[in-house]
Amino acid sequence: MLPGNLSEALRRVSVESVRGAAWSARVVVDSLIRDLEEGESVCSDPDTVSEAIVEANPSMASLYNVSLIVREACRKGGEQALREALARMVYYMSWAREQLRVKASEAFPKGISVATFSYSSTVEAVLLESRRQLSRVIVFESRPGVEALHFARRLREAGIPVTLAPDALMMEYLPGASMVLVGADTVTVDGCLVNKAGTKLLAIASREAGIPLIVVFESYKIHPQARCGEIRITHRRFLINGWGAEFYPVFDETQSGLVKGAMTEWGILSWDPGVPRDLHARMIAKILSEG
Predict the structure, then answer these.
(1) What is the CA radius of gyration of the chain?
(2) Last-in-domain residue among 98, 116, 135
(3) CB neighbours of residue 52 within 10 Å
(4) What is the pTM of this model?
(5) Bridge-based pairing state of the strands 267-270 and 193-196
(6) What are the start-end ranges of the E strands in the chain?
(7) Which domain holds residue 278?
(8) How far is C-alpha 136 from the chain's CA centre?
(9) Nearest CA-CA partner of 108 in 38, 41, 186, 160
């Protein structure tokens, strides 16, 4: 049986339709910390706990990495080691996001226009940090779902000029952008992106339009083992007005050849298949190896 706070956190993660990998990982980590503070046993059956964390949303590597930390910390030193590792992960997540903000403030020239897709809190942080440099942000709707509308409203409320555009008009609107920024719920070890369904279409349209696609993510979203085609894609039921319910994949996979570069906590990098493995190793070393 799962600890109580963790069980509730996994339920919330499994049904969340707007917030993504960063939010999901933080909710799970915080629940584990609360369970340990309340005297709940986590390391008595770390495999069951780890499997349950992954199953809450198998398409998110951030959850896989939380499960990996649970297994490794419990094996290394039991619940005291797990407490310390979880505290370091909380710190790492905050540190990584702040580093991304710093990199963003240095990355964009004045007057740049950006196109984006779906809702990524990481992309949001980068755009908010760079708001003075932005001339416009084009947000594609990313149907099915409403998360892009939520994102566009948040950017507009922050004073950023925003255009909300239909997915079907990507090729019409992309020439108005200098760069495409997308988040990632998972980056595979060989460089594919798993993100909201429609990201691959945007990547292909970006290539056709000659506009570079940059993926913005923190290293805890890298899956250290899975390769392209090996991530289990979550499906959900969507209600279509005037039609009824349909069951759709929530994510799709964008091959590494469609990605020009990455903005991470370690800097702005050209994209090649060796990048994810190196970034993941650095992240795990910081969380599991520090005393």
Answers:
(1) 19
(2) 98
(3) 17
(4) 0.93
(5) unpaired
(6) 112-117, 134-140, 162-165, 179-182, 186-187, 193-196, 213-216, 235-240, 244-249, 251-254, 261-264, 267-270
(7) 100-283
(8) 23
(9) 160
pLDDT in tens, the chain (291 residues): 899 999 999 999 999 988 899 999 999 999 999 999 999 999 999 999 999 999 999 999 999 999 999 999 999 999 999 999 999 999 999 999 999 988 887 888 899 999 999 999 999 999 999 999 999 999 999 988 878 999 999 999 999 999 999 999 999 999 999 999 999 999 999 999 999 999 999 999 999 999 999 999 999 999 999 999 999 999 999 888 899 999 999 999 999 999 999 999 999 899 987 889 999 999 999 898 754
Token pair, residue 77, equals 């030193």
What is the spatial distance between Cα 179 and Cα 17, in angstroms, rounded to a whole number? Answer: 26
Q: Where do we find the tokens 């710093």?
A: 102
Give the whole-angstrom CA distance, residue 15 versus residue 36.
24
Token pair for 153: 């409203």
Q: Do 275 and 140 fall into the same domain? A: yes
Sequential DSSP letters for 207-244: HHHT--EEEE--GGGB-SS--TT-SPPPEEEEEETTTE
Q: Which of 177, 108, 183 is closest to 136 using CA atoms?
A: 177
Return the DSSP state at 285.
Answer: H
CATH number of the domain that 218 lies in? 3.40.50.10470
Report which residue type is found at 136. R
List of residues 6+ apart from 269 with CB closer than 8 A: 261, 262, 263, 275
Domain boundary among 52, 67, 98: 98
Chain centroid offset of residue 193 CA = 10
Is 41 a member of any domain?
Answer: yes
Phi, psi of 128 (to 5 degrees): -65, -40
Residue 6 and residue 85: Cα distance in Å, rounded? 16
